[in-house]
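Listing S7. Sequence submitted for prediction.
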Amino acid sequence: MKMLHEHYRGVLESFLNYMLIERNFATNTRESYRNDLERYLLFMQESSRPIEAITARHIEEFIVELFETGLEASSMARNISAIRSFHKFLVTERSLKTNPAENIHQPKQARYLPTVLTVEETLRLLEAPLAMTPRGKYFLRDKAMLELLYATGVRVSELVNLQQQNLYMEAGFIRVFGKGSKERLVPIGSSATQWINQYQSDLRMALVQRNSNDYLFLNSRGIKLSRMALFTMVKQYALQAGIEKSISPHTFRHTFATHLLEGGADLRAVQEMLGHSSIVTTQIYTHIDRSFVKEVHRTFHPRG
């Protein structure tokens, strides 16, 4: 996982301390802001931009990249709120003279069609951890995570917080705690079950530490994997698999739902598996499905 340089890390920690001490933000909100701003600052770091050189155009470029990863509207809004608060803090502290994020607004996302992988692309991505030469030390963990993302369509936060006690392998389900701590049971399938079992027996036992608790997916220090680490991992394997689409872990969620509907699944069953409180949210995938059907008609019908 890429790390923030000291230049960025120090400023970020100052902002987070300000949120905690002076603004009394909830721990969960503060951690969400930390994850959002780490991704934002990594984006700027990769472009060799010091904080004082960031402009509104640079922030808009980052927002476009977020948009293309298929983040939900609520996550997009939180990211933009974090960026605006961060730059406002720097102006208040007189580290910056002007706030480049002052006029940044959330892009309209109501009807966007998220990026979806084809079945062939999905299979290539799922095989990427096994195809690497030489295989990395954590290929079993990574393979199990990718299989689980595609098998269940869980959110990133749901995956990294998944605990072993919530695996019901013999019954073929996992128990997931979604937004608002809403609980649901999601079918897992035989392939993901196989790879999770292998990861648990062959690698997790070697990673576990006193502070590992019961989290299923652990990093090299024996603590639960971060959302940023998962994001970076998926990007790397997509590159390895030769996938040119801009994707993120959330792409598996879109792909999961779309492939089910293309296969004839009932919309309400997909809603339940995704943990959507309203079927309206799930219906976006019917638009993707219709676009697939239209493409088939255009390609194969004599009058297409």
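Caption to Listing S7: primary sequence and predicted structure tokens for the chain studied. The mean pLDDT is 86. The beta strands are 167-168, 173-177, 183-187.
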